[in-house]
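The data layer described in this paper is built around a simple, fixed record for each protein. Such a record has a labelled line for the sequence and another for the backbone structure tokens. For reference, a complete record is included directly beneath this paragraph.
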Amino acid sequence: MSFAELITRMTQAIVRNDGAAAADCFTDDGVYHDVFYGAFPKARIPLMVSEHFHRDASDFIWDLHEPVSDGRVGYARYVFSYAGRMPGSEGRRALFEGVSICTLRDGRLVTYHEVANAAPGLVMLGFAPARVAKIIERQGEALAARGESAHHLPR
């Protein structure tokens, strides 16, 4: 199966609330790193899908664009939207764009990471500016904590 087929299978399983099918796209040691909810090893991906994604939102659309892979690493640009279910955002449509960054082994995902422009979608959901700022701050802290960022920051 090509990377394009694999990542489409994984994302569309999440859209239809089939966490087991999404998890099946990962190696046994695979991990899904979600921009909002954090890291989920393969065994917990079904719970992530049902107890986070589909608890907090509905009516998902996840379109992938220009997936590419060298067999070891894969990238795909995406546009993602949903209707909010959280208090204060019920029924509001959120729209995000991002890039999926995956490592691969034996035709499966070892890691799924994403870099997403989350702020516009959070504003669409009606999140207060302080709440948006807190989420963006957490994302900045995670970026700063990565080893590859160390030489970019003051010592």
Notes: The longest strand covers residues 57-69.
